[in-house]
Amino acid sequence: MAPDDGTGVQTLYENFEHGLKVNPNGRCFGHRPIHPKDPTKAMPYVWQTYREIGERRTHFGSGLLHLYETHVDGTGDPGWRLGFYSMNRPEWAIADQACNAYSLVNVSLYDTLGPDTAEYTLNHSEISVLVASLANVSKLLELSSSVPKMRIIISMDPLVESVGAYPGTAKVLHAWARDRGILLVDFNHVEELGRQHLRPHRPPGLNDVCTICYTSGTLGTPKGAIVLHRNFAYGSIANTIMVIPMEKEDVHISYLPLAHCMERLMFTSVIRKGASVGFSRGDPLLLLEDVAALKPTLFISVPRLYNRIYDRLVSSTVQAGGLLGMVARKAVEVKLANLRAGQGVHHALWDRVLFNKVRQVMGGRVRIFISGSAPLSTQVVDFLQIAFCAPLHEGYGQTENAGSASFTVKGESRSGHVGAINLASEIKLVDLPELSYLSTDSPSPRGEVCIRGQTVFSGYLKDQEKTNEALDDEGWLHTGDVGTIETQGTLKIIDRKKNIFKLAQGEYVAPENIENVYSGCPLIAQIFVHGDSLENALVAVVIPDTEVFLPWARDLVGKPSASLEDLCEDEAVERGVIEAMNVYANAGSLNGYEKVKALRLDVEEFTMDNGLLTPTFKLKRSECVQKYRGSLDAMYAQLKGISSAEGAMSKL
Fold first, then answer.
1. Which of 303, 280, 377 is nearest to 31 (CA)?
2. Which residues of 574-602 are buried (b: 16+ CB within 10 A; e: fewer)?
């Protein structure tokens, strides 16, 4: 199950070396410098070649080893871990390639991490040396007293007196670092050290550790997944064979966090082919400006962004009035029919009339779109494909298999699934009788998705118990996702094993915990919180506590004799209950995506008799979904209506 694309690549070191070989003078990494006279503007992209990046990773890696041996550990033990704390930028990628060249281990922190999670990750992975953006240097210094192994911080930005918003910033940071017993240097200094103390490369093997990739921690303490070089290398090769016939002329815009396996996997594929990576400025509000400047040919994103693009395009085309709306509706109708008939995403007439202009939203050159992290609705997938005149491939994976388990293949005209299993992996479905999912189900088998093969990680750092839960004795990774193998042989994800689901923006949600928080509200007797991987918000069905609810609701609407049924149907009462619930949500420290955005009040309690409770009084979620399907759909339609109205108002 080791896929071969003819490159012979087995590690990320060999991956870059191959890109360097096929395109030494081609564009490798690009970024947009800030305009020297107007900091609110950016200059055109500035590029470094593969040869230049190859030299810089050698210099930085050599300097890194010299610093480590002179300030941390004189033995020079291989395989030590380098921490990364920054948004995507060339220096992040150069330091990562240095790790690959000298068999060091990349440990990346999300740029948006709070101090508690950052502290835990640094201590758990025993990081002594970090590279960080200037904005994060001060955060690390604040944490330094509680991260005793931290010895060296390397600023990706120059540490000169003109740096930052205030004069003397570098001097203050240096003094602060000395006071904490930490050596603070900048990236340029490390490269210069490397030129003076040049080291030969120390390439890793295919089974050596590439990165410790920490899960988001949504379900508790973050776990450090140990990902090997072959996991990324073979996963990337399999994906390019199945999906992306990439060439060195291709251009990728890097804005999804490199701390996440999804972006790392795409990055790996681009580099191996000798193609170009342009980094965004890191501001989501400026992303489309960067896209327009870069004009990428490849674009990878998550459902949350694709859904927003879809909403904008639909409102400005098929929902437009007059002649434009008439033309757009006809164009969409014809192209959708062609797509579903297997005739592709292009149309000679309608592309010339309308869709070539729509393509300019994404720079006008994107030939492949990729989506991951959570499912996209078939409506969105199909519309975006015809609107942008390019295929949109959906992938499925998780940190524990280097983000690569399955992908929709080239030429696929049917959406609503996550494609064929990766060429580097194999799949099986394990029965879940307690959830009524069986591999013997007809017409398609269902069960927990288990993956085995070259992409599967080797376990969690310092956590054998969690490792044993994820990996069985035969090497199968138990994903916790419930899937079905469709008659066409494609995989479709339909549920989560432990009642934990992912919203459209990629956030995992544990509904039982949220229900426990809301149950503290005296207005609530029972609550069912629901989320959908195609939606970005939670909704709920609430059974009110009549003793508290009735007098409160009657007073709220000024109707002292109103019935319980009438009050449960009153929109003002619904809004009042949500406001009361928000008090408990805030007190319970729920995140924004964990808060209920719409609800329906019902007078019928959840009981064993009506099939909504188990004998141990646990909620039967699938039965609740079936019973309240109409209400759930209506709530999501309501939320979309509010969002559209707010968008329209913002333009006035």
1. 280
2. bebbbebbeebbeeeebeebbbbbbbbbb
Residue of higher predicted confidence among 374 and 70: 70
Dist. CA 277–CA 299, nearest whole Å: 11
H or E element, residue 427: strand 425-430
Phi and psi at 317, nearest 5°, equal -125, -85
Category of 190 on φ-ψ map: left (φ > 0), alpha (ψ -120 to 50) or beta:
alpha
**Which CB contacts under 8 angstroms, 24+ apart, belong to 178-182?**
180/141, 180/144, 180/145, 181/151, 182/141, 182/144, 182/150, 182/151, 182/152, 182/153
Distances (CA, A) of 72 to 67, 132, 152, 200, 571: 8, 18, 8, 20, 64
**What's the token pair of residue 114?**
């709070």
Output the pLDDT for position 598. Answer: 95
CATH topology of domain 507-650: GMP Synthetase; Chain A, domain 3 (3.30.300)
* DSSP letter assigned to residue 34: B
Which among 81, 138, 72, 133 is positioned nearest to 105, based on CA atoms?
81
616, 579 contact by CB (below 8 A) = no
Task: Compute CA 167 distance to the chain's CA centroid, rounded to the nearest angstrom.
Answer: 37
- What is the residue whose two structure tokens read 């919180």? 529
| Tokens, residue 283 | 């501001």
318 φ, ψ to 5°?
A: -70, -25
**Mapping DSSP to helix (H, G, I), strand (E, B) and coil, where does residue 247 land?**
coil
| Cα 119 to Cα 373: distance, rounded to the nearest angstrom | 26
Largest CA-CA distance found in the chain, in angstroms, rounded:
87
* Locus of tokens 């590279």: 131
Q: Phi and psi dihedrals of 47, rounded to 5?
A: -115, 150
Residue with tokens 């269902």: 446
With the CA atoms of 218, 588, 143 and 282 taken in that order, what torsion angle do they form, in degrees rounded to the nearest 10? 60
User: Token pair for residue 486?
Assistant: 């469709």
- Is the pTM higher than 0.85? The answer reads no
Token output for 470: 């994820």
d(CA 436, CA 317) in angstroms, rounded, equals 43
Residue 493: CB atoms within 10 Å: 20
Task: Return the domain boundaries, the chain.
Answer: 12-294, 507-650
Rounded CA-CA distance 495/219 in Å is 17
pLDDT of residue 642: 61
| pLDDT tens track for 279-314 | 999 988 899 999 999 999 999 998 778 877 887 888
Give per-residue pLDDT as tens, 405-430: 999 888 887 888 898 998 999 999 99
Q: Give the chain's mean pLDDT.
A: 89
Lowest mean pLDDT across 29-33, 321-325, 608-612: 608-612
Q: Is the peptide bond before 203 cis (omega within 30 degrees of 0)?
A: no
Is residue 181 scored above 70 in pLDDT?
A: yes
So what CATH class is 12-294?
alpha beta
The closest of 646, 517, 522, 528 to 591, measured between CA atoms, is 517
β-pair type (406-407, 420-421): antiparallel
Locus of tokens 């994906």: 239
Q: Which has more confidence, 76 or 6? A: 6
